[in-house]
C-alpha cells in the first residue's frame, strides 16, 4: 500500500483525475468502480475537463458505483444517482446502459444485489476502483466489523456515518440510516485501487491506517493491505499526523 501526500487538495484531486483519465483515454473499454461524497467533487470536475479537452471516446466506458442510499428515490437530489449524473455521467454524456449503481428499492433487493456482484464478476476485474474513506475507516458503506468476504448487500449506517452525511440533508430525520453497498470482496476484485482522502477530518484515520501492518475488520480500509496495487492519495491536512 503506497501512501502519497500530494500537499494541496487540488494536487491530490488532480493526480487521481489524471490516473482515471489515462485509463479511460488509452483503453478501449474501461471498467471503473466509482465513489461519491464531498471528497470526489473536484476530482470529477477535473476528470470531466480532461475527457472533454482530449475528446476521449467514452462510448465503451462502463462504471459500477460503490453504493446508494437504501429506499431513497433515485431522483432525490441527495441520491448517489443524482450526484453521479450531476458530477460525471451527464457532463460527459454517458448513456444509461453504461453506468450501474446498486439497486436500492425494497422490491427484490437481494436478487438485485446478487446480480450486481455477478455483473462485476463477469465483466471484471475493474480496471480502477476509486475509494473515499469514512472517519471510522469505512470503504463504500462497509462499516467497522464488516467481514472481508462481504458482497453487495443492504447495510445499516453507523452513527458516525449518519452524522457525517447529515451535512447534505436539510433535516436530521431525512438522513438515510441504511444503504446498499458493494462488499469488501467485490471492492477488492479490481486491478488497481485509488483511495482519495482530503481534509483534517480524515487525519486520524489516515494515521491509524498508516501504522497498521495486519488487516483488522475493526478498520474496513485495512482490508486493502491484502490487495497488491493500492495507492492512498492524501492532501497535507489528511496526512498531517503521518510522520
Ligand atoms: C461514497 C462512499 C463513502 C465515502 C466516504 C467519505 O460513495 O463510498 O465511503 O467515500 O463516506 O465521504 P466524504 O467524501 O463525503 O467525506
UniProtKB/TrEMBL annotation:
Single GO cellular component term: cytoplasm
Signal peptide: none
Source domain of life: Bacteria
Any single biological process term in GO: carbohydrate metabolic process
Organism this protein belongs to: Macrococcus brunensis
PROSITE patterns reported in the protein's UniProt record: GLC_GALNAC_ISOMERASE
Annotated protein name in UniProt: Glucosamine-6-phosphate deaminase
Keywords, sorted A to Z: Carbohydrate metabolism, Hydrolase
Entry-linked InterPro entries: Glc/Gal-6P_isomerase (IPR006148), Glucosamine6P_isomerase (IPR004547), Glucosamine6P_isomerase_CS (IPR018321), NagB/RpiA_transferase-like (IPR037171)
Single GO MF annotation: identical protein binding
Domain Glucosamine/galactosamine-6-phosphate isomerase: 15-224
